[in-house]
């Protein structure tokens, strides 16, 4: 293969790699925002894991399998 | 697990790692400053025979700051943040407590062994993976112990949802384990020497030539990702919201940026091997992925800046917030600079020049160093139950170190680009215009400036160490744990 073809292929390769990642990540972002909006899951409340982190604070969401009283 | 009013978080291991962060920080940075002065004034290389030469000292600097200072900071904050966001205490498990202590002590003996072997010239000669095989085995042991303690703590948690910082720490554990094992595949020559004399400490890599380069930079680049980036992001996602009392601007963005970083970083290592003998498509891929990397990197950084939305006043009142905001600003700087350097035509100028250490130190001094120190400042009043000793000292340190970093990277940018252009310059007949020594002469003032910048940063670090020491020994005793802003005496 000559240099020119190689460079052309590399060029297309670069474009399609970028396009592929673009689609995957925008798709994921869209799904996150959709889940938040539809109320399936509130992601934003998880900041409280930091703000309320003392050992005697009530857990934000208790673990189902924890042997908590 | 019984909820129990007496139960408290256990900070004994946090304190031990805090101590080593400071100790190895001082040693690593001191050696760095010596190296910088040696580059400006080469006579300084001859002061201590073979032991004082640049080549012996450089791996001590890089290993010291990366695996001494930064890793200690990562472990200290892990044992602090981990317990708190998972709402479990190490006191609840004798087993995990023992594992954590063992993790510390094995780590602690590894670092002096590393210094001694490196200064004796025992090295594999692979950058950032210089330690010889017996030490590599020791590292595997404490890395596994860290994993056991991490997943043990996660297993005992009271919170169902694992906070995003813990994801970042987990990624660091898993990725470094994989990278370290593959890059350090080595054969101790002693066992296969067939009677020929061989040092017990000597080994050779299982890879050769181009393969070796590929594995080496897959490792090297991702050491940047999983030692200098993800665990530091873990820190800022905990300490900035906590210290400022603000909600993370967008938790969704933090999750999105996490997966972005995980996916993209692992493909970008090829940018260290542009115009080398590795296949051209790999160089192209490395370069393309590096450009994409701006997105998840800036995603985290902007998320942190926006977390301060409406609360920018805190920047004036709290030097601790200043350190963290400056850290994420430097993170933005190095993650825009990196992708630019990864573009093939730019790399042709930048590679092998001083622009590379310029880029490195925006990241390490500005981002990693500032964030680790800020984390320690935030933890100190909680783990020692005392007020921070001096706010004005923190201010002084902040400005001294910021000026130090600016001197460092501006001098290296100018030096690097000058060097790159001079190497390439040719006349109408195609002959090179400059010989190597011409560039050396031109660069001398910039090397001196860089050394001075580094010295500023080191002095700042000593102020930091003093401030923490005084906090520990003579800060005002606090009767209850501060909720957000860390109390500091003026
Ligand atoms: C988007 C993120 C980044 C990209 C795309 C990137 C890209 C690059 C490139 C192209 C090089 C030069 C390779 C060469 O020609 O020799 C480099 C070197 C380096 N970078 Fe980055 N960088 C990024 C972020 C960072 C950060 C945040 C840090 C540190 C905290 C860092 C630390 C380093 C180090 C230590 C080297 C030197 C490797 C050596 O010894 O040659 N980078 N990076």
Defining key terms:
heterodimer, A: 69 residues, mainly alpha, elongated, B: 490 residues, two-stranded antiparallel sheet, binds protoporphyrin IX containing FE
Report what the structure shows.
The complex is a heterodimer of chains A (69) and B (490). Chain A has helices at 3-37, 48-51. Chain A is mainly alpha-helical. Chain A has a domain at 22-51. The longest helix of chain A has 35 residues, at 3-37. With 490 residues, chain B is mainly alpha-helical. Chain B has a domain at 1-162. Helix content of chain B is 70%, strand content 1%. Chain B is built from 16 helices and two strands. Chain B has a two-stranded antiparallel ribbon with strand order 1-2. The longest helix of chain B has 39 residues, at 436-474. Chain B is globular, with a radius of gyration of 23 Å. The two termini of chain B are 42 Å apart. In chain B, 50% of the residues are buried. The model of chain B has no long low-confidence stretch (mean pLDDT 95). The structure holds protoporphyrin IX containing FE. Protoporphyrin IX containing FE binds next to helix 10, helix 12, helix 13 and helix 14 of chain B.
State the share of residues found in helices of chain A, binned by percent. Answer: 55-70%
Question: What's the β-strand tally of chain B?
Answer: 2
- Largest beta-sheet characterization of chain B: 2 strands, antiparallel
Are there runs of chain B of 5+ residues with pLDDT below 50, and where?
A: none
Shape of chain A: elongated
Strand composition percent of chain B:
under 5%
């Amino acid at each position: 293969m000559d240099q020119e073809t190689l460079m052309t292929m590399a060029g297309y390769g670069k474009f399609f790699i970028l396009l592929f990642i673009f689609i995957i990540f925008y798709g994921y972002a869209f799904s996150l925002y959709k889940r938040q909006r539809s109320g399936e899951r509130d992601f934003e409340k998880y900041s409280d894991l930091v703000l309320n982190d003392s050992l005697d604070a009530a857990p934000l969401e208790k673990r189902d399998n924890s042997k908590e009283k | 697990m019984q909820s129990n009013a007496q139960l408290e978080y256990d900070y004994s291991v946090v304190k031990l790692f805090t101590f080593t962060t400071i100790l190895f920080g001082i040693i690593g940075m001191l050696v760095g400053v010596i190296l910088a002065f040696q580059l400006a004034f080469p006579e300084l290389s001859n002061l201590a025979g073979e032991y004082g030469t640049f080549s012996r000292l450089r791996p001590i600097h890089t290993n010291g700051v990366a695996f001494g200072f930064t890793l200690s900071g990562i472990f200290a904050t892990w044992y602090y943040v981990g317990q708190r966001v998972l709402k479990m205490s190490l006191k609840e498990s004798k087993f995990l407590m023992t594992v954590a202590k063992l993790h510390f002590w094995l780590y602690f003996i590894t670092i002096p062994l590393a210094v001694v072997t490196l200064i004796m010239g025992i090295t594999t000669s692979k950058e950032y993976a210089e330690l010889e095989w017996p030490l590599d085995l020791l590292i595997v042991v404490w890395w596994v112990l860290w994993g056991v303690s991490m997943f043990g703590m996660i297993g005992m948690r009271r919170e169902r949802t694992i906070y995003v910082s813990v994801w970042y720490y987990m990624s660091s554990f898993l990725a470094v384990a994989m990278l370290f094992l593959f890059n350090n595949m080595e054969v101790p020559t002693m066992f296969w020497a067939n009677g020929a004399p061989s040092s017990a400490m000597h080994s050779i890599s299982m890879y050769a030539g181009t393969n070796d380069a590929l594995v080496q930079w897959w490792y090297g680049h991702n050491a940047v990702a999983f030692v200098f980036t993800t665990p530091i992001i873990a820190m800022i996602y905990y300490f900035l919201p906590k210290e400022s009392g603000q909600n993370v601007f967008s938790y969704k963005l933090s999750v999105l940026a996490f997966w972005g970083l995980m996916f993209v970083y692992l493909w970008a290592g090829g940018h260290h091997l542009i115009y080398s003998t590795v296949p051209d498509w790999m160089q192209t891929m490395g370069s393309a992925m590096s450009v994409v990397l701006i997105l998840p990197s800036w995603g985290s950084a902007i998320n942190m800046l926006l977390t301060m939305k409406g609360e920018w006043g805190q920047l004036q009142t709290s030097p601790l917030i200043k350190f963290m905001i400056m850290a994420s600003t430097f993170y933005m700087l190095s993650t825009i600079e990196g992708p630019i350097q990864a573009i093939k035509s730019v790399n042709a100028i930048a590679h092998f020049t001083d622009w590379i250490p310029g880029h490195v130190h925006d990241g390490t001094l500005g981002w990693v160093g500032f964030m680790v120190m800020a984390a320690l400042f935030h933890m100190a009043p909680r783990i020692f139950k005392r007020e921070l000793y001096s706010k004005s000292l923190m201010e002084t340190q902040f400005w001294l170190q910021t000026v130090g970093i600016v001197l460092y990277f501006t001098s290296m940018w100018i030096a690097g680009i000058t060097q790159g252009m001079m190497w390439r310059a040719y006349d109408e007949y195609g002959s090179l215009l400059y010989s190597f020594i011409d560039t050396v002469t031109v660069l001398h003032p910039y090397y001196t400036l860089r050394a001075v910048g580094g010295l500023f940063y080191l002095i700042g670090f000593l102020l930091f160490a003093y401030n923490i020491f005084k906090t520990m020994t003579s800060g005002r005793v606090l009767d209850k744990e501060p909720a957000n802003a860390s109390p500091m005496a003026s």
